[in-house]
Amino acid sequence: MKKILIVGAGRSSTALVEYLSRKHTQYDWEVTVVDAMPEVIQSYAQTYPGVKALSLDILDKPTRD
User: Fold this and answer.
1) 18 in Cβ contact with 45 (< 8 Å)
2) N or C, which end of the chain has less CB nearby within 10 Å?
3) Which residues make Cβ contacts (< 8 Å) with residue 6, sequence separation at least 6?
């Protein structure tokens, strides 16, 4: 299994997340999207099957580590 991490769930990542969601089973991908905005992340998790979404403030070093 290959793991794919997308940091930042802005509008520019929507097409990529949608594509990875469609292909995750075929290619055995584990797709995770992280973003600082929990409401955006929940939307991704609910909309795209196979996508795990986590809330993370990239500037918070202890949490990031």
Assistant:
1) no
2) C
3) 13, 16, 17, 20, 31, 32, 33, 34
* Cβ count near 41 (within 10 Å): 20
Measured from the Cβ of residue 10, the count of other Cβ atoms closer than 10 Å reads: 9
Task: Please state, in angstroms and rounded to a whole number, the distance separating the CA atoms of residues 50 and 63.
Answer: 24
In whole angstroms, give the CA distance from residue 20 to residue 14.
10
pTM, two decimals, is 0.84
Q: How many residues are present in the chain?
A: 65
What mean pLDDT is predicted for residues 1-18?
91
Pull the structure tokens for residue 15.
């097409």
- pLDDT exceeds cutoff 90 at 59: no
The residue type at 53: A
